[in-house]
Amino acid sequence: MNYTTTLSNFSSLPEGLRPDPEAEWNNKGDSAWQLIATTLVGLQSVPGLVILYGSMVKKKWAVNSAFMALYAFAMVLVCWVLWAHNMAFGNKFTQLVGKPSSVLSEKFLVNQSTYGLMPMANYVFYQFAFAAITVILLAGSLLGRMNFYAWMLFVPLWLTLSYTIGAYTIWGGGFLEKRTIDYAGGFVIHLSSGVAGFTAAYWVGPRHTHDRQLFPPNNIIHMLGGAGFLWLGWTGFNGGAPFEVGRIAPLAILNTHVCTATSLLVWQSLDMIVYKKSSVIGAVQGMITGLVCITPGAGLVDPWAAVFMGALSGSVPWYTMMVLHKKSAFFQSVDDTLGVFHTHAVAGILGGVLSGLFAKPNLLRMMYGQKVSTITGFKQLGNQLIGAAFITVWNAVVTSLICIFISYIVNLRMKEDDLEVGDGAAHGEEAYALWGDGEKMPKITSIFRRVV
């Protein structure tokens, strides 16, 4: 067979078998990698955070916590394709948001993406995975007491009124796009989820008193499995942001894992020095803060900077969570179940500031061209802080308004009697039904005697 055949030689083929000359822009390598990266990001949520949340909470809240994540994943996808994607990345409506409209059009989805040499469907699905994990991360602040019906209303409202605004202002063409460095979501995803989660936790109220005092994970091994999905899934999270298989993606992936490993080890070391034991839960928290901290600059900094960022992400959020939180009346007044404010808001701001300091102009040009300023170092700090301030204030205000609105429709918090029961009251199901309440495990010795 002659492989030098040109497109014109195919004119005699049936129409359905001819190459599409209009699709020459579709780089199959870039497109394939984007689908893989999107799948990795999706796996962070389902099953990653489903398993992590379901294992990291008390046994009686395992089903409810896991299902909050699963429901959010499904609801966000439907909202995303019906109106939210174009609010975040569509035609300009204001400086804060794009025009809401559906993307469920073959003509729209199979044509070239605005970003990268691939169909638009790749970009829509990738950005959905980002939006979904943001809402699910937020849920970590609310586990163990939020009324599930209130959560069902909260997810589409918060996605529409909060997430899309943050995404549009920094990524979609808004007033912060050319001045704020946020490679893959340190502000758009992590700062917003941390602030919104903490704010919603205030309005929902605390867990049952006994739960707040004693809240052990029901399965640490499964918790580590969920954490593993989160860590390795971050390969797609930061590796997919350039929308091409170029020089930036592998650098971002290496920086991500180096920063995360450093952060985990630093957090573990501080636990051993202060508490004389290496906490598994603490190691997972350190892993998460490392992932969050590197995200706004993963493909824009040198590996040595990633190590430095990991050292700070393993120590600064450790201090705010393990020391400052326990001493501060402000933090004690809000029941942030999994400490999402510390692991995502604090680590997100830290990463955003450090990314402004350490981002290299040549990497910025390689990633964005002329779309953003290549000013870095201390000159960029002001822009980074403006971006952080906007995301913080917007999320605090809008999340509060959403919670107040929902409270007029349904109670934000489950009833006190239901809080004592947990999953059984919320869903009529238990995580471990075989040896649930009211059943006793038969003695192993008696079983053994019968077998013998």
From TrEMBL:
Chief place of localization: membrane
Record flagged with keyword Transferase: no
Cellular location(s): Cell membrane; Membrane
Listed GO CC annotations: plasma membrane
Residue ranges occupied by any Ammonium transporter AmtB-like domain in the UniProt entry: 32-432
Highest taxon, organism lineage: Eukaryota
Span list, region Disordered: 1-22
GO MF annotation: an example: ammonium channel activity
A Pfam match: Ammonium_transp
SUPFAM superfamilies in UniProt: Ammonium transporter (SSF111352)
Annotated keywords: Ammonia transport, Membrane, Transmembrane, Transmembrane helix, Transport
Chain ranges passing through the membrane: 32-54, 61-83, 123-143, 150-171, 183-205, 217-236, 248-267, 279-298, 304-325, 337-359, 385-410
Entry annotated with the keyword Nucleus: no
Name this protein carries in UniProt: Ammonium transporter
Source species: Quillaja saponaria (Soap bark tree)
